[in-house]
Amino acid sequence: MRTRRGFVTGLVAACAASLVSGLARAADRASVATELDRLSVEVGEAFEFTVQVEYEGGGEMPEPVLPNFAEMGLTLAGPPSMFRSSGSSVSFGTGRNTVMQSRTIQTYSYTLIPSKPGRFSFPVHVMVGSGKVAAPRTPVLEVTGTAAVAEPIPGGVGGPTEAQGDLFLWTRLDKSRVYVGEQLVYTLEVYERLPFPNIQLRALPGFQDFWSEELPEGDQRTETVAGVPYRVHPGLRRGLFPQRAGSLTITAAEVGVGMRRRVRGRPTSIEVLPLPVEDRPADFSANNVGLYTIEAAVDRAKVKQGAPFTLTLTISGTGNIRVIDPGAWPELDGMRRYDPKVETRTAVGMRLGGDRIYQFLIIPERAGTLTIPPHRFSFFDPATAKYQTATSKPIEVVVLADAAAPAPSPAPEPAPVAAKGAAKSDEDGLLAPLITPDTLPRVTNDGSWLTPGRFAAGMVLAPAVLVAATGGRALWRRFGPDEASRASAARAARQRELVAQAERGVATGEGFYPALAQLLQALALARAGAQGQGLPRRALLDLLARRGVTAPDLERLGRLLDRCDAARFGAASEGPGERKAALDDGLALLRRSSLTAPEGA
Q: Is residue 461 part of a domain?
């Protein structure tokens, strides 16, 4: 009896234990949910992928099994962010038999950047025991655009080698050493590890001692720095032309993120070499640094004598095309040439270049086959570190004698007096008929207008009117200057400003030669008048000679301007004594030379 009762009791206990164990195992369960913050992005645009795992059971929290982001062409922008929350306990069974269970929710957030276009799905699952639990919905992302290609790092200052936080600035230069006037490409880039809203350029870099031209900024790309992926935004690109030799510094730029955070870059130094003196052509201008060609063309190869045609000379190439100096134009035998119309067409791409076009109006003065001689143009090629000369081809123009030109007419004979009743000739009616005194009408004057009262009033008022007119003219000269007076006053003020700037730079040299060159150039242009605007130096000096400037003054002016160029472009180095002597020469030229004579004198 006891044995049977003990067996029943043991059987009931075993069944109860088996039931509780089954309930516990049934409670170990999990679920997965996935979400994309957007369904379509472009290559290089960051997006968020969120995975949420909910687990109930007594074991360890299962980790999500993700797709292979690297094989999909997706880059993680930093480690994922995680957030965990736990729920309350629950019980199973009745009486004394209870099972304590925990409920945990783990959320993972991944910031991803695609490097190629396509359609990508994101299946995710977790393992619970030997079972696989997948997300009920698989999100799909559409990536548009073109595949991001790893761009080669330009020479000179290369790319960063160490990760510098979530946001930093980097400067690239395509060369670390250049000549004076040689083109240098400056690029400012923003490296961003996480997507930041509202990044703004707060402070521009300083390009003192450089001629600066804007270039296209380029496209956004992705780049890995020491294993850390970054999105690289082009900040700005500039074509820079150093204006003097030495170690020049480009100051740092600064960007702002929102209202509080500011990120500053680093200053950049560049070594600038002076232009070599050896083998320099006599007609070389320091503005002509780059690689150029020259072409000449006429709009017609056959013209009549005295009929105008157009000669076009085009200088093309890569460099600072805006300041090209073509040199002196060759003389034209048998033709009269007028000052050119000048046009600049810049070509802005990865580097600055373009065309400088000179259009001349030419009038042939005699018949025959006339030749337009070649024009030679010297420049310095930084790639070969040598001076070169580009030459246009000569052009022949056939000038036809104008047989239809009328011969000089003989002196006209007096026209015969037409007989009475004869037919009227073409000259009739050109002269009015003669008027004799006998035919004039006679009018009898009844009385004199000038009475004694009017005479007395006129004698009193005439001096007063004269005094008032004289005073008015004096007041106008004092308080109402004309345009010429105002222009003269403005020129005088500008001269005083440049003289003061040059005097301040005598000791250190800073700004001295640019101020002296501007002072002398303004003096020459004021003497040359409107025709001097835009002329190269040699043509300007020739015009001044025709305007009556003496040869000693022209020689002194040319020597001082060449001296300024030599110092500004690194071909000469002078001390305070030499600079003081140059300033004294310039002031003497300003005060006591034929250049200061009034225009038209």
A: no
In CATH, what number is assigned to the domain containing residue 350? 2.60.40.740
Q: Which two tokens stand for residue 323?
A: 């300041």
Same domain for 260 and 317?
Answer: no
How much is the pLDDT for 411? Answer: 41
- The model's pLDDT over 550-598, given as tens digits with 9 standing for 90+, comes to 888 888 888 888 777 666 554 445 778 888 888 888 888 887 667 775 5
pLDDT of res. 47: 85
Instruction: Count Cβ atoms below 10 Å from residue 411 Cβ, excluding itself.
Output: 4
Instruction: Return mean pLDDT, the chain.
Output: 78
Partners of 200 in the β-ladder: 256
Q: What is the pLDDT of residue 578?
A: 84
3 state SS of 361: strand
DSSP per position, 425-455: -TTTTSSPPP--GGGS------S-S--HHHH
Instruction: With beta carbons less than 8 A apart as the criterion, state whether 220 and 44 touch.
Output: yes
Backbone angles phi, psi at 253, to 5 degrees: -95, 170
Domain that holds residue 263: 167-273
Alpha helices in 341-482 (DSSP H): 452-479
Could you tell me if residue 415 is inside a domain?
no
Burial class (CB in 10 A: 0-12, 13-18, 19+), 397: buried
- Measured CA to CA, the distance from residue 194 to residue 165 in angstroms comes to 10
The pLDDT score that the predictor gives to residue 402 is: 78
- CA-wise closest residue to 141 among 117, 121, 161: 121
Angstrom distances, CA of residue 65 to CA of 3, 72, 109, 454: 55, 15, 14, 121
- Alpha-carbon distance 526 to 561, whole Å? 16
Position of tokens 């008032």? Answer: 468
Are 263 and 347 part of one and the same domain?
Answer: no
CB 582 within 8 A of CB 499: no
Q: Which residues contact 378 (CB under 8 A, 6 or more apart)?
A: 281, 283, 284, 285, 288, 327, 387, 388, 389, 390
Report d(CA 100, CA 50) in Å as an integer.
30
Which residues have C-beta within 8 Å of that of residue 281, sequence separation ≥ 6?
Answer: 378, 387, 389
Please name the residues in contact with 255: beta carbons below 8 A apart, sequence gap of 6 or more: 167, 169, 190, 199, 200, 201, 202, 235, 262, 263
Query: Does 444 map to a domain?
Result: no
Residues contacting residue 344 through CB under 8 Å, at least 6 positions apart? 321, 322, 354, 355, 356, 357
The C-alpha atoms of residue 473 and residue 277 are separated, in whole angstroms, by: 60
Pair of tokens at residue 143: 């990536």
pTM of the model: 0.48
CA nearest to 34, candidates 49, 55, 54: 49
How far CA 177 is from CA of 98, 238, 468, in Å, comes to: 81, 16, 73
359-402 tens-digit pLDDT: 999 999 899 999 999 999 999 999 999 999 999 999 999 999 87
Residues in the chain with pLDDT < 70?
A: 1-27, 77-79, 86-101, 148-158, 403-450, 460, 472, 474-486, 534-536, 565-573, 592-593, 597-601
Contact 38, 74 (CB under 8 A): no
Give the separation between CA 247 and CA 250, rounded to whole angstroms: 10
Q: d(Cα 398, Cα 309) in Å, to the nearest integer?
A: 12
At a CB cut-off of 8 Å and minimum separation 6, what does 528 contact? Answer: 535, 540, 543, 544, 547
